[in-house]
Amino acid sequence: MRYLLPVLAVAALVVTGCEERQNMRAVPNRELHAAGPESKAGDNVNKPVAIRGEQYYTIQSGETIYTIAKKFNVTTAWLIKRNDIRASDELKPGNSLIVPAK
Fold it and tell me: Which residues pair with 97 in a beta bridge?
């Protein structure tokens, strides 16, 4: 009996967390766990959003992460981290990156 109260408290916390997630359109998760009914495999639900002082930049043909970083006077590490770049195939012409506003 003395273990019943802590077990009920933990169960209440777990149920509350599940109810909150059910109200979301898509749960941001790169591995697509519980991504929601409107998301499809391959959707980029974790795409970073530009904030004040930043802008979107469309990658041009022949550009690299280094040339873009140099163009906007930032480090390649900053661009990679800010845009959550995990693979080189994310740097295709036509894709957008977040860069500092000029």
Answer: 57
Residue-wise DSSP of 2-16: TTHHHHHHHHHHHHH
pLDDT digits (tens, 9 = 90+) for 63-99: 999 999 999 999 999 999 999 999 888 899 999 999 9
Q: Tokens 């749960």 — which residue?
A: 27
Number of folded domains that form the chain: 2
Place of tokens 């495999």: 41
Q: What is the CATH number of the domain that holds 73?
A: 3.10.350.10
d(CA 15, CA 8): 10
CA angle 96, 34, 50 (to 5 degrees): 25
